[in-house]
Amino acid sequence: MRSSTTKQPTAAEYLPLLFGFAVYQIGAAVAGLGVVEALADGPRTVGRLATITDTHPGHLRRLLRAATAAQLLRATDDDAFELTTLGRIFAKESPLQAAPLTAMHSAAPVWQAWGALEESVRTGRNAFELAHGSRLFDFLKGEPELAATFHDAMAAGSEVQLPAIISGFDFSRFRHAVDVGGGNGTHLAAILAANPRLRGTVFDTANGVVEAADVLESAGVADRCEVVSGSFFDSVPAAADAYLLKNILHDWNDDECRQILENCRAGLAPDGRIVVFTSVLSEGRGDEDPAEALGAAIFDIEMMVMTTGRERTLSEFEALFAAPGLRLDTATALPCPFLYYALEAVPVER
Q1: Nearest alpha-carbon partner for 242 in 188, 204, 318
Q2: What Pfam families does its record include (predicted)?
Q3: Beta-bridge mates of residue 203
């Protein structure tokens, strides 16, 4: 009889699975309490940090020790702590903009929604609705503080993605771009600033575009851009040759996406294109960076938790585009984390 031994996973391998939630909340607390901001200029003692952050010194010390074990902080010889390179991702100036994203995900309603993930998988229902009795965007209407946190997180994500979009995608071929679901205009303002011959339209709900005129004015592009309010489920401004959908389709299910795409197709100029900026799920061939593929997959689960939508593979996007009479013409990988692409769709007859 042959005996065999199976190598057991190391703590470094299994801790993220068993206690990843705890590490996450340690980072969220360090950021949310103001510890990162207090350490921006250099090390501080526990006592000084407790005073600055108005926290319990004993409990703060324990949090700082845990954050040190998580490699977010480094202890010095004089009972002080300082930020590590990893810890600096929570700083305001960090290009990764981790602090606003962490603030959203550690908010109690979002945390509770993730707690309903298993039930969501069992039932096929949206986890946020299971946890709170209403969909995310309806819930936010009655929770202004959470809504502000949510919009800060979305803006932070855009700040990470926008440089990659501007540097990695050619907007110079277009005459007029409509940013569908463009919010306060930050995305389109940056695109217009980098493409001085391009004209634009920011299109979103009345609440979504409240600050858009000021953003466009501050960016110096207001003379080339109008602001239009409405619902992309009803119609979109007509006759543009580029309809931009940045991080929009993943919020909605296939039927809802079909309606959005049909409206964009109806407004499209004869030579126009619908451009979808989105993460794309791995097809499972094993040719992507594992961390990149995991990031995109986590985004897909987040869509299951937070919305009726999903992330999609390229083949799933092809099927999604086909329903309203479109075809995927070009897929351009962008220099941005988590398999981020610009997908260009055109009418089938072209």
Answers
A1: 188
A2: Dimerisation, Methyltransf_2
A3: 180, 228
Are 248 and 308 in contact, with CB atoms under 8 Å apart? no
Here the tokens at position 40 are 């921006």
For residues 69 and 125, the answer to whether their CB atoms sit within 8 Å is no
Q: Which two tokens stand for residue 125?
A: 């229902």
CA pair distance 282, 293, nearest whole angstrom = 6
Angle between helices 11-32 and 57-69 (to 10 degrees): 140
- What are the catalytic residues? 250
Task: For the beta carbon of residue 135, count every other beta carbon within 10 angstroms.
Answer: 14
Classified as helix, coil or strand, 345 is strand
Burial label for 61, CB within 10 Å (0-12, 13-18, 19+), is: middle
The tens-digit pLDDT sequence of the chain (350 residues) is 555 568 899 999 999 999 999 999 999 999 999 999 999 999 999 999 999 999 999 999 999 999 999 999 999 988 899 999 999 999 988 988 899 999 999 999 999 999 999 999 999 999 999 999 999 989 999 999 999 899 888 888 888 899 999 999 999 999 999 999 999 999 999 999 999 999 999 999 998 898 999 999 999 999 999 999 999 999 999 999 999 999 999 999 999 999 999 999 999 999 999 999 999 998 877 778 889 999 999 999 999 999 999 999 999 999 999 999 999 999 999 999 999 999 999 999 88
- Whose tokens are 């969909």? That residue is 135
* Positive or negative: CA dihedral 261, 210, 97, 305: negative
CA distance 310 to 312: 6
CB count in 10 Å sphere of residue 2: 3
